[in-house]
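Ticket #4471: complex job returned nothing on first submit. Input attached below:
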Amino acid sequence: MTTLLEVSGVSVTFDGFRAINNLSIQIGEPELRAMIGPNGAGKTTFMDIVTGKTKPDEGRVIWGERNISLLGMSESAIARAGIGRKFQKPTVFEEQTVRENLAMALKNKRGPLDVLLYRRSAEGAARIAELAEEIGLADDLPRRAGDLSHGQKQWLEIGMLLAQDPRLLLVDEPAAGMTPAEREHTTDILKRAAETRAVVVIEHDMEFVRRLGCKVTVLHEGAVLAEGSLDHVTQNRQVIDVYLGR
Amino acid sequence: MRLTALLARAAALLILLACAFAMRPGAAVAQTALQPLLQEHRAELAKPSRTTIGPVISALLASDHPGMTGFLRKWEAREVYLRPEDGLFFYAEEAGDMLRLIDIDSGAAVAEVGSREVDQIRPNAGVRREVAAALVPYELNAPDPARRAEALDAIARSAEASQIAPLAASIEGETDPALKTRKERLLTLLVAQFGETKSERLDAIAGLGGDTSIEARSVLNQLTATRDGVATALPDDANIARVLEVGTDLTEAEAHDRLVAAGLAPPRQTAADLRDVLAQHIVDGHVGGVPLHQLDTTAARARAYEALEQAGTVPPRAAPDEVAQAVAAHVFYAEYLQPDPQITQAAEDALAATTRALGLYQTADLVLDGLSLASIFFLAAIGLAITFGVMGVINMAHGEFIMMGAYTGYVVQLFIPDYTVSLLIALPMAFAVTFGAGVAMERLVIRHLYKRPLETLLATFGISIALQQLAKNIFGTQARPLTAPDWLGGAITLNDIVGISTIRVAIFVLALIFLALLLYILRRTRLGLEVRAVTQNPGMAASMGIDPDRINMLTFGLGSGIAGIAGVAIGLYAQVTSEMGANYIVQSFMTVVVGGVGNVWGTLAGASLIGFLQKGIEWFNPSNTLAAQTWMVLFVILFIQFRPKGIVALKGRAAGD
Amino acid sequence: MSKPDIAPRRSFLAENPSVMWFLGLLGLFTLGVTVLAEGFGLALLSTSMVKILGMTLCLCLIAVAMDVVWGYCGILSLGHFAFFGLGGYAIGMWLMYARTQGIVVESLANAPIPPTQEEINDAIATQIFGVVGSNELPLIWAFADSLFMQLLFVVLVPGLLALIFGWLAFRSRVTGVYLSILTQAMTLALSLYLFQNDSGLRGNNGLSGLQNIPGLLHLPQSTIALWFFWASAAALGLGYLFFAWLVSGKFGSVIRGIRDNEARVRFLGYHVESYKLVIFTLTAVISGLAGALYYPQAGIINPAEIAPIASIYLAVWVAIGGRGRLYGAVIGAAVVSLASSWFTGGGAPDIDLGFYTINWTDWWLVLLGLGFVAVTLFFPRGIGGLFDMLVRKP
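Support reply: We reran it on our side without changes. The output follows.
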């Protein structure tokens, strides 16, 4: 397992409020990592920083074997470098079909001219079918994404992430609002994805995290409070105080 | 004609002064009757003409008779009558259909006559000016301050050397301090131009430095006036202002034109002249041996002309190199009309000081202009900023609310003729009308479009065109007056340059009041608290028992109501038309965008920036306000590049990005 | 199991029957107008009517462009009519210059001595710019004698302006109503500039006499009107086809994605700004072309045409016609612009209410404004949306 993403000494302040405070995290490849913490601990802001949405005041974010800094790059360039992100609220293109959603996400050249001259190919179609199968939407390809159920939208978004074929997946609360059966399926998808790439999952639901069975990072007030197996961190006195409840 | 009149007048004044001084010690000629003195000049007095009256007036004034100035004033005012039967002069007053004649010396009524029996003497305008000028020195000491002021005006209008002495003499006895200052200043002006000794003049000129009054500036400009000169070498005796370089100060063509005007060079031949000359010498389809169809280039035409020249049919012409030679052989300069270099130098120095002072005052004036424009933009934009900030809604009909406010003011004036009262009623009325319109619009249209801001923009645009056309249908296309009360009609002026109309001051004050009022409402009242809560997080506000619908409605009403009041204010100095709102809407948008959304201070900053900048650009190019607006808009587009969220931007998550 | 992998490759038209329908109807319409037109012989349609129809087709073309930039890509541009006007000015410069040149050469032909080139140039400049008190051709008229160069400018000037403006605006992530206001400001700046007498484009006099096509002066206006009508129809057909192709494939998918959720598209790795810039510039160029076809039929162009209000009306047409569907834009532009000229041209009969007579010249704008509000509120999909409901009903 080699280090894929290295965040070190990152701080960010909003209007005097320190959302991230000297945060350092390393993610390997392949790896499945869960990230937990109370509200306002800086989990989502962490993802914002990695994906280029928020610029930190200080610190470094280093990516890949060639140690590229992500800080100067635009969101789209970071995405092309191999980082995919799923938002807390499912954001799929509701006006378009499931197939169009997946096709848009497929790993292909992203320039306007390339896209304009893009021709549908048999490989592309096969890949879309494969992904649809994986996320359980094989029968729904021609449907409007807006007509899908909440859980199906979550899966579609995960499917779009996989279609990008990223090296790092950042997944924000994938199981929110899902039935237990759907959760199980989601866990399977994520675990399978983590066999070949790095996956970081933000989740509140401890049961879900336990099922993932991976290393856990606990954030608090913008910094790492504890790191290790779920059992290890749940024993931690501080974690119990600030997060698991008094 | 004019010259002789001037000479006559000058001569008259000289005589007059000489006599006045000469006779002062023995002023005992008094108390002879006036009538005999007048009879000596009966013909000229009865039928006065501008060319001959000068010496007569001087002779009359030379008599130093105490009643003489009074008589001349009445005579000039056409209040003197001549009775043809005995040739005597009388004053007269009306008595029914008759005229009661009054003796000039005794003041007693002499007779009542019909108006046909006497001739009213009617000096024409030219004569009356002569008389007025001759009387100025006497008027300077008149008991009535208004008459003294008039006399000073007369001197300022047409200054002459002869006025120095009486003016100087009158200063000591002057009781009115303001008039005394004026007299002293006028004296300086006169001495600067006509002083007897050079040192006296130099002192006076130095005293004018920094004086920004139009009178002082025109005196200095006169003293430094130049005329263009050209010669083979710089003349020694002339007071040269500067030497002009051909190529930098004037073009070769201009230089040559001056040579031609001075008779120092033959005129250049223009292309049109050349063509006309050639056209006169067409022989068998050829000119100078060149076939006609070839004459469509300048070179061919020159060839043809040379051929004609050699044949002797046309005179030689000034070729381009000859023009250059002629220009090079001469020196071009500007020469002071005033021959004394010391005086011109002093005047130039004084003028420089004046220019500096002028710059200072102009800057102050510019600041005032900018301030008043900024307050108008602030008033026009603040309502928009409130609705945009709180609801994220762009109201394209905002301009029409401004128009509705102005028309409300106009309608109120139709019913209440007293402008002060009607204004006091119009302001709250305009607020009420546009508040109502705003609330109605919010409830009927905008409420249903909250999730679709771009469509709100378009729907409000639809309302805007409907309202505009509706106003046109009701009030017509003509501009309607919204008259300001008298106490707002004037202007506050500091001097000739710095001034601001009272109405603009009032708008500035109104803007300040609204700034304070809005700050108070938003910071200190329950409504303000709720508005801020809804602005920052509508969902959270709703869950805490604040009704966002109600807040939105009130905010929209408030924003629209302020637009109505802005409409009354704008209508007071601009015209009320159905399109007036459209003229302000884009500026208002820019004010909001530049200032930053959702913040009273931001709007203030935006309005100030746009107002001052627009005035500043206008100052660089005063003739072209269109260009100023063009640059203004370009500036805003570039400004957004650097501060996309405006001057006062919200940061972090609250900014909603 | 999943459905068949991929639909067999069919031609674009076969996959998009609505485009076929549109092109067919446009062809029929063109044929109908041609047969009925004065220039053809039947003379059931006057030449001025043919011109109005031709101009309407140009307006439909810019409406289609507007629909792509707004309905598909979500950029509510209030500046596309400025590009339209710039295209008109670019071609108008050649039309006016060449026509004036013809007149000048003709009038100087009788002079005893043939004129020099400078004399001709001076006479042309005086003829064109005398009205704004100048007798020199401004620098921007340097290529006015070349039809090729001016045609190039029809494309280049709107294209470059859109490129620079779009680059600045999109780069700093100005979106939504801010962007709309900014485009409106751009339009305002342009029209204010053109209103100045020293703009080099004759200030508020604008360019006139554009209906006289140099080199074709021997032909009657009825023929020329028909030619321009055909050209406009062809331009609309080709433009429609091009945009339909553009928005149908993956590119269309991406720009609709940008409209619905810009950030998401960005996190998928697409450089959103480039896409917006491509769409903005492309539609600006098409708008310029539409303007270049429109103004020779209108005969005159002046800065008032470019005023911000015109661009807002353009948005109104598209909204009434129905956004996000190209035929909606065509319907909106055609219906509203023709209705406008019918109502304001005195074509509509007054309505006598007994106590008040509704005169449509006065009340049309009120009706349009309120009608537009109603459409926005109750039929956000516009006329095209109603059309969809009729067609799609099983």
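Chain C touches chain B through 52 residues (CB under 8 Å). Closing as resolved unless it happens again.
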